[in-house]
Design goal:
The protein is an alpha/beta fold. It has 4 helices and 8 strands, in the order βαββββαββαβα. A 5-stranded mixed sheet has the order 3-2-5-4-8. It has a 3-stranded mixed sheet with strand order 1-6-7. The two termini are about 30 Å apart. About 25% of the residues are buried.
């Protein structure tokens, strides 16, 4: 019996609830984490397609129906880590859609186990994503 691949990115119920509010106002959403300035190490939420992804970005999976991307340089550091998107009260210094709600998304993380590392969900660069993931 085949084991389900280990998810690279998860989400908390509180973050799901925030996405539901944002989706109601903005429609389909996406996430990107760059590791750059202006809270770039935090996941940023955009209207789907508002942030252009390419070969310098990696698709890690979906959270609550939203594609989650990370810059390839950042992924090089985080590739052995399972990420969990959460939300906390407070204001980040970013352009992310949740900021007007008085909350901000953040990442909690843990290292994958050796067993999980043997059975990882695939990742795609931004262009491969268009070929393999998009309907």
């Amino acid at each position: 019996m085949s084991q389900r691949p280990a998810s690279r990115v998860l989400i908390t119920p509180a973050a799901e609830a925030t996405i539901d509010v944002l989706r109601e106002e903005h429609g389909p959403l996406m996430f990107h984490q760059s590791g750059g300035c202006c809270d770039g190490s935090s996941p940023m939420c955009f209207a789907k397609g508002e942030f252009r992804v390419g070969t310098n970005d990696v698709w890690l999976g979906q959270i609550h129906g939203c594609d989650f991307f990370m810059s390839a340089a950042q992924f090089a550091y985080w590739q052995h880590t399972q990420l969990t998107v959460d939300v906390v009260k407070g204001r980040g210094a970013s352009f992310s859609l949740e900021i007007p709600l008085g909350v901000r998304f953040l990442i909690r993380s843990r290292l994958f186990t050796e067993e999980e590392e043997k059975n990882m969900a695939p990742v795609y660069d931004g262009e491969e994503y268009l070929e393999h993931v998009v309907d």
